[in-house]
Amino acid sequence: MACLVTRDLVIGYGDIVVVEGVSIEVEKGCLVAVVGPNGSGKSTLLKGIMGLARRFSGHIYYQDQDITLLPPHTITRLGIGYVPQVNNIYGPLTVRENLLLGAYFRRDKAGTEKDLNEIFNIFPELARRRDARAETLSGGERQLLAIGRALMGRPQVLLLDEPLAFLAPKTALLILEKLREIRERGLGILLVEQNTFLALENADYGYVLNQGRCVMEGKGQELLSDPSLRERFLGLPKEVR
Fold it and tell me: Which residues form a coiled coil (predicted)?
């Protein structure tokens, strides 16, 4: 059953439309990837879902509740976590302090501490540096911290905007390994990513955006093997070798 659904969503900034009529679904325990060329509206789609971009028309549903008109802080409290591509940690604060910020609206102190320890179990890389200032972390560690902070809000759906950008291949694979582990815990994940190969190889389902519209959708591996898609929209060879 889908826990996050958009229907004919039109999103933009000011009077400019960027995303036109996009419909997607994210089920619990599934990783859904949104890929496509630069400027195709991928990041804007996430911002629209979170209430950070203008929603011209269409609907957004979370667990059958229409959240189209809700503000970002309410959407977060309902159970949708969001990890933006940049400015996603607070450099002067420690790793532990950053994680606790993700639980700012929670009042269950015991539960918060329990979840903090669980985050350190999932991300031992962060546990080792829990008292270090976030600005001293590597690029990969910063992304892990941003993901961990979002998880501290106990979301049911996690939205990630290009978490693999500018990372070394080994680090990108580590991030994907962690996302698979999070998915196995029952969370729905909506991943916007420029690295088409890695995103679709790890996705249960994928959507391809081009010029603000969804031009194709299907299982991740099926999309990767589609000749026309590979050449026209992804800039990849027609044949998989």
Answer: none
Q: pTM surpassing 0.90?
A: yes
CA distance 161 to 133: 23
Domain carrying residue 162: 2-86+154-232
Which spans in the chain are helix H?
42-49, 72-78, 95-101, 109-122, 124-127, 139-151, 169-184, 196-202, 220-224, 227-232
Amino acid at 120: F
Lowest mean pLDDT across 40-44, 139-143, 230-234: 230-234
Reported as a single tens digit per residue, the pLDDT across 189-238 is: 999 999 888 999 999 999 999 999 999 999 999 998 888 777 776 666 66
> Residue 227: what pLDDT?
84
Domain-embedded: residue 58:
yes
Instruction: Say how many C-beta atoms besides its own lie within 10 A of residue 66's C-beta.
Output: 12
Looking at the structure of the chain, the number of domains it has is 1
The CATH number for 218's domain is 3.40.50.300
SS3 18: strand
Q: What percent of the chain has pLDDT over 90?
A: 86
- Count CB neighbours of 178 within 10 A: 18
